[in-house]
Amino acid sequence: MEKRTLWKTTALAVIALACIWGVPGVSTGEDFLDKMKKAMEESQRKRQQQQQQQSGQQRQPPQPSQQPQQQQRQRQAGTPPGNEKPQPSPDFGTPEGTAKIAAKAGFLDVVGIKLGMPAKEAVDALKAYNTGFKPVPNTLYEYEALPGVVMTPELVAPNPAGPTAPAGDYFNLFMTYAPNEAFLWGIVRNLGFGREDSRPTVENTLAGLRKKYGPESTKQVNSRLIWIYDAQGQQVMGSKADDIYSKCSQTWAVNSGGESGGGNRPNANHQLSNSIFDQQLKQGYYYGTGGYGSPGGMCHAHSVLDVYYLHATPAGSTADLMTSMTMGAFNRQLEGSGVTASHIHLMDAVDKLNETRGEAESKRGGMKF
What confidence tens digit (pLDDT) does each residue in 44-79 have? Predict the structure, then answer.
């Protein structure tokens, strides 16, 4: 199995990621741009304040650390200035904390597949919906610092009718991974409606969504509906939902790049390399968000249901029909805690590996010049 070596000092990288459920979920209206500009200005202001504080702290005598290295890394794990934990809980970003969040995530589901389910239960729920689904795991390449550890961030369930079917249903199930137990933090469902005579109307489809999930929290670009829930499972509505979405949609789009990260696709053995999962493992949960991060912790403190659809009215008809629809259900708190725990686990193993190599090199006496 191919192995890769991680070094503690890494180069900065910029990747362009597409949201896997369609067009990235941002509004093109002036209102959104104004909000985004204000959010960026506020982020810059906070960043400058922190730099000033750090400059002042550098003039003071150094104080001994009061925290273990793991807690320090947990606080710093890929988090841009101004980001905070969603709760003042010391076990966020640990396997134990991740399990606690998973236990409370089941208020949001797609066809009976509930967020927070252990992997086996999620697969069983998918097969209960349709026995034709056969999920396949996509794994990451083994890391040299974690020999024998298999990380499976995603299960893919292709259309039971086959890739050439005129209509179909396709699922991606996103899981937490080592050292966490495998819990479902995200579901993406892609639907194609085939021939015109079998397509549902937009009116009936949206009515069905609202019957199950209630009225949407916000609506974007006239064909994207968003439901947002806080950490307690209470739906967020109105201007607050608009504010959260305008500040977090960029971060959420990047973090949902999944196997598409960096143009990456699984190989014939269903292994991923250099995906967004790998980048987060090495550099933390907010890798690649372009500085958007999570103002006040909001972007990793909410659950989201994102529905994007395409539609058309056939010639000679007045019926507005669905042509395709993608649903994404995500618990960002569960994702953030799981990724943070995995990042800490890998970086601690890298520290130990580098220490071992340093000791071995010292015994050899190093290179002679």
Answer: 454 455 545 544 444 343 333 334 444 455 444 444
- Nearest by Cα to 324 from 204, 168, 186: 168
Which string of b and e fits 99-115 if b means at least 16 CB within 10 Å? Answer: bbbbeebeebbbeebbb
How far does the chain reach from its first CA to its final CA, in angstroms? 35
For 12-47, the pLDDT digits (tens) are: 332 333 333 333 333 333 343 344 444 445 544 544
pLDDT of residue 173: 96
From CA 21, how far away is CA 187, in angstroms rounded?
A: 10
Rounded to 5 degrees, what angle do the CA atoms 20, 23, 28 make?
A: 145
CA distances from 2 to 106, 138, 148, 153, 226 (A): 37, 15, 12, 18, 40
Contact 343, 285 (CB under 8 A): yes
Q: Provide DSSP, 7-48.
A: -SS----------TTSS-S---SHHHHHHHHHHHHHHHHHHH
Compute the distance between CA of residue 300 and CA of residue 184 in angstroms, rounded to an integer: 15
Q: What's the pTM value of the predicted model, to 2 decimals?
A: 0.75
Give the Cα separation of 211 and 204 in Å (integer).
10
CA distance 40 to 148: 42
Residue 235: HSE in the Cβ half-sphere, 13 Å Cα cutoff: 13
User: In one letter, which amino acid is 125?
Assistant: A
pLDDT in tens, 269-297: 899 887 888 888 898 888 766 556 666 67
Task: Please report which helix (H) or strand (E) contains residue 210, including its range.
Answer: helix 202-213
Copy the structure tokens of residue 206: 């949206």
Closest to 135 measured CA to CA, from 124, 144, 143: 124
CA 223 to chain centre: 22
